[in-house]
């Protein structure tokens, strides 16, 4: 198998709100769109995002009314403190402040208008390692 790209598909109530959030704050660009659907991509190795409106008929019946929940979209970055400052300055609510775990994970969380949780993480050498 040769995987040539990766995407995460998120079912949300307001596709435009999530689209605008990821374009404005995370540098995504709209690649394709139709009624109730948008595909977002970046020029780097970030995962592509597909946003589907809840209830859209292209989803199997048992999935149409589900929303993106219980998952976290994670972006690994190299300048986490700067990213937290930038997002705060842009008016994004930080839903979990920057912290460092004993195993070397520095992270913080934001949440998009549809409740999609986004984690930014930077890996560092743990203290005492």
Automatic annotation (TrEMBL):
At the top level, the lineage of the source is Bacteria
* InterPro entries in UniProt: Glyas_Bleomycin-R_OHBP_Dase, Glyas_Fos-R_dOase_dom, VOC_core
Q: Which PROSITE patterns match?
A: VOC
Fetch the Pfam families from UniProt. Glyoxalase
The protein in question is named VOC family protein
Positions of the VOC domain = 4-123
């Amino acid at each position: 198998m040769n995987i040539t790209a990766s995407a995460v598909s998120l079912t949300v109530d307001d596709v435009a709100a999530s689209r605008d959030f990821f374009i404005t704050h995370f540098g995504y660009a709209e690649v394709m769109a139709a009624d109730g659907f948008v595909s977002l991509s970046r020029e780097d190795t970030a995962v592509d995002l597909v946003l589907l409106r809840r209830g859209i008929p292209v989803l199997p019946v048992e999935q149409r009314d589900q929303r993106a929940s219980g998952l976290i979209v994670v972006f690994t970055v190299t300048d986490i403190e700067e990213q937290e400052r930038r997002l705060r300055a842009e008016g994004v609510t930080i839903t979990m402040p920057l912290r460092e775990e004993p195993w070397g994970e520095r992270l913080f969380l934001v949440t998009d208008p549809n409740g999609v949780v986004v984690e930014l993480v930077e890996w560092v050498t743990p203290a005492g390692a």
